[in-house]
Amino acid sequence: MRHFLRLFLPAMLYLRSLSCLLVLLLSCFSVTIVAAQTSNNATTKWLTLNGDAPLVIARGGFSGLFPDSSYDAYMMAMGTSLANVIIWCDVQLTKDGVAICFPDLKLNNASDIDFYFKNKKSKYFVNGVPTLGWFSIDFNFKDLAPVTLRQGVYSRTERFDESQQRILTVQDVVNQVKPPGLWLNIQHDTFFSQHNLSMRSSIISLSRSVLINYISSPEVNFLRSIVARLNRRITKLVFRFLGQEDVEPSTNQTYGSLLKNLTFIKTFASGILVPKSYIWPVDNSLYLQPYTSLVLDAHKEGLQIFASEFVNDVPFAYNYSYDPISEYLSFVDNDDFSVDGVLSDFPVTPSATIDCFTHLDKNDKTQVKLLIITSEGASGDYPGCTDLAYTKAALDGADVLDCPVQMTKDGIPFCLGSINLIDKTTVSQSPFHNIASTVPELNITSGIVSFNLTWDEIKSLKPEITNPWLEFRLYRNPKARNEGNFVSLVDFLTYAKNVTTVSGVMISIENAAYLANQGFGVTAAVLEALRSAGYDNQTAKKVMIQSKDSSALKEFKKSRYELVYWIADNIRDIENSTVSEIKSFASSVILTKKSVFPSESKFLVGKTDVVQKLQSSNLSVYVQCFNNEFVSQAWDFFSDSYVEINNYIAGAGIDGVITDFPGTAARYRRNRCLGYKDQPPYHGLVDPGVLLQFMARQLLPPAEAPNPILTESDVVEPPLPPVAKIIPTAGNNSATANAAPTSPIGHSSVGAGILACCLSILLADLGIF
Length: 769
Ligand SMILES: *[C@@H]1O[C@H](CO)[C@@H](O)[C@H](O)[C@H]1NC(C)=O
Ligand SMILES: *[C@@H]1O[C@H](CO)[C@@H](O)[C@H](O)[C@H]1NC(C)=O
Ligand SMILES: *[C@@H]1O[C@H](CO)[C@@H](O)[C@H](O)[C@H]1NC(C)=O
Ligand SMILES: *[C@@H]1O[C@H](CO)[C@@H](O)[C@H](O)[C@H]1NC(C)=O
Ligand SMILES: *[C@@H]1O[C@H](CO)[C@@H](O)[C@H](O)[C@H]1NC(C)=O
Ligand SMILES: *[C@@H]1O[C@H](CO)[C@@H](O)[C@H](O)[C@H]1NC(C)=O
Ligand SMILES: *[C@@H]1O[C@H](CO)[C@@H](O)[C@H](O)[C@H]1NC(C)=O
Ligand SMILES: *[C@@H]1O[C@H](CO)[C@@H](O)[C@H](O)[C@H]1NC(C)=O
Ligand SMILES: *[C@@H]1O[C@H](CO)[C@@H](O)[C@H](O)[C@H]1NC(C)=O
Ligand SMILES: *[C@@H]1O[C@H](CO)[C@@H](O)[C@H](O)[C@H]1NC(C)=O
Ligand SMILES: *[C@@H]1O[C@H](CO)[C@@H](O)[C@H](O)[C@H]1NC(C)=O
Ligand SMILES: *[C@@H]1O[C@H](CO)[C@@H](O)[C@H](O)[C@H]1NC(C)=O
Known about the structure:
By secondary structure, the protein is α/β, with parallel strands linked by helices.
């Protein structure tokens, strides 16, 4: 406790009231509240057993971030969740019968016990399975004093490991954390009985001094043994289902077969806890199947039903597009049922879901001014820049559809996220694969540039979905991997003009100088397409022209289009003269995420003034690129794309987002909490740098070289060269399958083209995993 307060002293300077103490991470202005506002008047809409809003149960505290069952994890859960959050403790017993909170029977799962007691590894039978490890039954509680908790899930950050978080007893958790609700899970009663330790007496004696709201166990006999000894109005017993094929040790039946008789369960429990797949099963390829009748069945039996295994940082069904709120909503806000609670490692997300995002309608008014610009359409769901990606984006609520323009050999501008066809199409499996070449000017080591094929040839290829987080084995909608059709710029413009919900288009131009030297006047082609699609003398749809080359934007000076300058580098500041220079040719700017919130090893270290400086000169600021995949986000945002967006909008005041997942931004914009006078903590702002204060000095992320300041000379460019007069004749078919063999197909460097937009963000950080 003392340690904790010391650690947080600096953070506490930000905090203005006592209740803020809980809000470790979140800015203070947000706090007070919750209890009153949480019970939104949608109460009658909840299809839970008792009609109340579903509960959020924080498994081991905020175990998605901090070591499971640690003081910091529990406090963080309390500080970022609904006011009535239930704190979950996995109870284990020590040799001297002390009940501790620890996630696993084996203490080496999430602590450094193996370091302190090298020789005390044992082998025991656990439900008949020989198991090797460090077991709590071999240690008296006081022996565990030096042991500290660690992150047991290796994909999560290990930077909080050495921060002196001790193993806590159940009593410690109650005394120090003071949870509004307590849930004890007894995963192994049989094992402890076999070692002459009585979980039953421990729990009964605890129940005399501590208010226990829920006790769960996957063992029938344990629950039956205590049911008569507890006041069931105070303490609810919950039978926990494990895998359908797993065998329940006291009845020797599988959980799947126990599920068939809920009447039996009802004889000793008032609720059940099931893995989420019991309710929404997924097939082998991780697509959702229709939901089962389990929630309705349980409710019919008078049983509450809680769903487990909610985490933001493990792939879940593709149907949710990596949007964790979308997943929670399918459990608590569908037309047919709501579970009575969710067990989560990231309690901030279900808290926000329940208070801010349930019972929203697609047509609810947006609560905040925020322009949603796509990045290659809904490229999180479909191959970028295809008709499918654009249709989905429009359906999902995007305001502005983007088209990164490339040129074909026959001079047709079309939409594709890279000049190198290998990045975004199946060209390397096509007859054209052998025309690959090196293009030093574009940093392409082996590629096939779009202007080496005709439009007809390109249309003969298939698009390829982009998987920017392949390194973490996070795939995007594999079923649609090669679906959709390429669209020409004119077709794109015609489509966008016809969709009433779309307010504008953004055309991105890269490599204009290089293309001019190759005989392609891309800016002229864009102007011509806009004219022929009827955009030149209309005002209904906004037209944005985007480039990181000021020289390309200057070609559009005479038009009335909004010119958008992309500052592709991460910068820490911008000179006044640079702002003036940008202002001379653009009316808005695109920044990288790190130019707003710089980070080191994915931990925020501050906030720049760049947004404010640009806006004070009347330049609008958009930020790219927002992805739903948790690896794209700083840890401070809790692996929750909504928390991230909220911090950029409400915290940094940007005017728009550029995103692969427009549906997520559109849902954010409608969320009810934006309309609250006081922001609840699960919809609050993070203080950049606060997480660093939870770390031991030796585990602080290494300081990185500061980002540069953007100067005028970074922005000023010579004008585009004249378009070289080597216009290829349309239909000339020299680049065919018979073309002379060239170098083997490889991949272009990431630096080239628009591909870099979303990819470059984190490449520097990847080392930390
Ligand atoms: C919720 O209740 C408050 C006061 O009871 C009322 O002012 C508000 O309009 C209600 N909101 C909705 C969405 O029904
Ligand atoms: C701890 O247990 C969890 C859950 O079973 C598992 O995912 C994780 O890999 C384990 N970690 C260690 C270090 O054994
Ligand atoms: C448990 O107690 C019984 C009887 O007191 C004893 O026979 C047995 O050896 C003990 N088992 C263990 C694992 O200590
Ligand atoms: C449990 O069931 C299995 C087969 O279903 C049987 O082989 C085994 O003997 C049973 N064990 C007990 C303790 O009943
Ligand atoms: C289900 O359980 C109830 C209560 O224990 C029992 O009376 C009933 O026979 C069981 N039904 C089946 C089909 O086993
Ligand atoms: C999930 O997506 C797959 C593939 O698009 C689709 O077939 C399935 O019906 C979806 N599942 C649900 C429950 O919508
Ligand atoms: C190509 O890469 C080099 C070194 O990585 C870099 O300096 C240069 O700016 C890049 N050029 C382009 C066109 O991206
Ligand atoms: C415009 O949209 C309507 C329906 O919204 C559709 O029927 C029509 O074909 C579209 N026109 C074009 C040119 O796409
Ligand atoms: C521009 O608008 C005028 C009047 O609205 C119309 O007559 C003209 O045809 C339009 N020009 C083009 C190129 O569409
Ligand atoms: C930059 O501009 C701001 C506001 O326009 C002004 O307050 C500040 O002093 C200027 N900085 C410099 C170095 O001129
Ligand atoms: C920004 O625009 C507002 C109104 O459009 C104007 O009053 C103000 O002077 C402008 N500021 C700058 C720095 O251009
Ligand atoms: C276009 O393809 C030809 C082979 O057909 C190749 O020699 C040339 O280098 C390619 N141009 C570029 C820019 O890749």
